[in-house]
Amino acid sequence: MTASDYVKNQPHLQGKPLTIQNQYSALAEFPPLSYSKAVATTNRGQSSEPTQTPPTKSAYFLKPHKQHLYTTHYPEPIKLKELQTFTNRIFYEDCLYPTDNVTKNRTFYEYILVDSRSIEITHYPDKTNPNTISYSTCKILRIAPLQDLGFQHLHTTKPFSQPGFPITGYTYTDYQNAWFRFLYLRPYDHSWFLAFDQKFNTYVPGWFYEWWHWFGPCDQIYPADLLKTAYPYFLKYIPKQTLGTYQKILFHANMGIPWICSWHFNLTQALPDMPYSLIKEYRVKWWDKYNLDRCSLINITKFFGNARQDQLLVQSVSKSIPLLTPSQLTQIQPITIPSQTPSPTKSTSSTSSQKHKKKAKLKKALQALSQELLDSSDDEDIINQDDLSSDPNAPYGGPLAQDPFEDMQP
Question: What are phi and psi of 228, to 5 degrees?
Fold first, then answer.
């Protein structure tokens, strides 16, 4: 989705209201402050018969870290309905985070990431109420550094490439905040399906590690075989000094592993002898439709083997083209065109013939290298996706061609 398409599809940017209030009544049945416990519990089987049962769906895992927002005046727990009334008083409906500028709402931050081609977002409306978003998907295309967006400082402003938002531009600080704030669409009953694009270049600035701390997956949601075999084997192919957080990001990006994230408000006594604090809690879940064969040892070996071949080919191409140093560049004499064409002589004709031969030879060599590069690149560009998913001998082991955004139901 391009930035112009995003403007067309967003009711906020067309002057249309977007209803995002909670449409679910089941939450009102929870006892005081029990939501965090309720979402962390897994479904228990209701039958002990030895008959075959369908595979159980992955449950949400409540992450242990709590994000402190606000010290309230409540000396004791309150009911969920009271908590929702409290948060509705202190937060704007499209700005569910502390801020002193409500014009920089969630839609503004979402538009920054879309306009900068950092993410692709799709919001799926509720079938019973088209004005309400049921769930959303986010494909992470890149995490742009300061220079890639044309910034020199954190406080400088650049305009949007596609006009349409009341605020005409943003800073790199806005870009950083956008990664954290665009996900605060609606608490309790909204989920995000998150995954890296297959062409993600794995560049990750330091501040993004904090994003992963809150919104990224955790070990508790992975299948057991993934942590016992696939992930340790994957680590053998990357530098040992790599940070653990970056290792997990690489694992998800290279193996195409998506995850599901949700969040909600809660109250807790974060500090001793203080009133209760308003906090945000985060839940993550495994996507059951992910093809675990993508993380097989054979596919991991093929993935890094093909990546190594591509690297060696690029190096061979770069070595075959001579590079001139600055001193050599200064020694090159400028080409002068005479006012009158001299009569051709034997020496000039032979020199010209040699130059033409050298140019033709270089051109032929470059064409051969280019063709070799195309032929040795992974066949994902020329093979049908269905063939990749069914052929075990295909490049990257076949199952690596799975697109997690197809037939997605979080």
Answer: -80, -35
Is pLDDT above 50 for 255? Answer: yes
More confident residue, 24 or 83: 83
Q: What is the number of structural domains in the chain?
A: 2
From the list 161, 297, 167, the residue with the least C-alpha distance to 225 is: 297
Quick: pLDDT tens for 379-395.
333 323 333 333 433 33
Q: What value, to the nearest 5°, has the Cα angle with vertex 111 and ends 110 and 115? A: 125
Alpha-carbon distance of 94 to 81, in angstroms, equals: 19
pLDDT-based confidence at residue 309 (cuts at 50, 70, 90): low
153 and 190 share a domain? yes
Contacting residues for 191 by C-beta, under 8 A, at least 6 apart: 135, 136, 260, 261, 262, 285, 410
Residues 256 and 305 in one domain: no
How far is residue 281 from each of residues 35, 53, 74, 188, 331, measured CA to CA in Å?
A: 10, 32, 19, 10, 65
The overall pTM is greater than 0.70: no
Residue 280: which domain range?
Answer: 3-39+58-290
Task: Kindly state the greatest CA–CA separation across the chain.
Answer: 102
Q: Which of 30, 26, 24, 19 is nearest to 83 (CA)?
A: 30
Contact of 203 with 142, CB cutoff 8 Å: yes
Task: Report whether 235 contacts 174 (CB < 8 A).
Answer: no
